[in-house]
Amino acid sequence: MAIDTTTGSPTADSYVSVAEADAYHSKRGNTAWAGVAADDKESALVRATGYVDAEYSWKGVRASAGQALAWPRYDVRTDGYPVDPDVVPQRVKDAVCELALKTRTGELSPDISPQQVVEQTVGPITRKFAPAERNGGQKRYAYVDSLLRQLVAGGGGQIRLVRA
């Protein structure tokens, strides 16, 4: 398997190459990544890229109608500065690296099952409770969310202010 990381390509399937992911995880001492076979790393990076594109609503618009992935994008600003519309932001690449490692221990977005109510009776006391899961049982990745916070649209009750 060979992944395509060409920015803006109609055949791109990952924001990050295996070499980039190796360097990222090596800097952070993530030894679990080092022992993964190259083909498995590629699959993990493709799944992680698919996850961020499916899970997050990005600011701006795609740079080209023909590109396969959501990045690069026009009309995106972070900290008041425009994001270069010819590149994938490093924060997106870092998020993909983090999520690729997480694919090694399970699905990023498992199917949602109905919450079960559990009942326990001890003597005259009965307790009922459901698992304390948010988002209907979907996993959330706090570090990834914080990496991408400035790049996603909406949230926090914010509105876009345009001066005329």
Can you offer a commentary on this structure?
- The chain has 164 residues and is α+β, with helices and mostly antiparallel strands.
- It has a domain of 105 residues.
- Helix content is 32%, strand content 11%.
- The protein contains five helices and six strands.
- The strands form three sheets. The protein has a two-stranded antiparallel ribbon. A two-stranded antiparallel sheet has the order 3-4. It has a two-stranded antiparallel sheet with strand order 5-6.
- Helix 3 crosses helix 4 and helix 4 packs antiparallel against helix 5.
- It is globular, with a radius of gyration of 20 Å.
- The mean pLDDT is 86.
- It comes from Cupriavidus nantongensis.
- This is Putative DnaT-like domain-containing protein.
- InterPro entries: DnaT_2.
Keywords:
globular; two-stranded antiparallel ribbon; 32% helix; alpha+beta; 164 residues
